[in-house]
Amino acid sequence: MAAVVLHAEPTRDAAVSMLKESGLPAADLTDGHMRHFFYTGAANRPQGLIGIEIQGDDALLRSLVVTPGLRSTGLGTALVQRAEAHARAQGARSMYLLTTTAEQFFARRGYAKLDRADAPAGIRTTREFADICPASSIFMFKPL
Q: Given a cut of 80, is residue 2 above it in pLDDT?
């Protein structure tokens, strides 16, 4: 894959549209969340998108989506690496996520399963953790 050009702060409308098309949660996203989101492709029609939510020393990887035609090209990995670098730059020392479909993808990138009961307080208070993602979601963690 050629070098991936990642842009910061997609429009909320474009991010919400892409997430909804992929069946991912977007109802709680605000314009303020977008400062921790990155995308590739056109601003009004991203081809890949990732977002995090900073909670003190921890970050929640709350959204990762790549258009079907670009999956398995390295774009998802590039997006995850950018989100991790951004989280570290914001002072986060750990990244957490919830997934129902991408456990193996994240395991190959160093994330390990963790019991939801072991989630830090800041992560537990996010809407995604508290009420958007189903209890059956796999909770994962990676030190940054």
A: no
Number of H helices and E strands in the chain, helices first, is 5, 7
Please provide the DSSP assignment of 90-114 as one string.
TT--EEEEEESS-HHHHHTTT-EE-
Phi/psi at 120 (5° precision): -65, 155
The answer to whether 69 and 62 are in contact (CB under 8 A) is no
Predicted confidence at residue 107, as pLDDT, reads: 98
Tokens representing 92 are: 């986060």
For residue 28, name the pLDDT band (cuts at 50, 70, 90): confident
Kindly provide the b/e burial profile for residues 55-86, where b requires at least 16 CB atoms within 10 angstroms of the residue's own CB. Answer: beebbbbbbbbbbeebeeeebbebbbebbbeb
CA distance 15 to 56: 24
- The pairing of strands 37-42 and 112-113 is unpaired
Q: Is 75 helix (H, G, I), strand (E, B) or coil?
A: helix
Contact call for residues 59 and 52 (beta carbons, < 8 A): yes
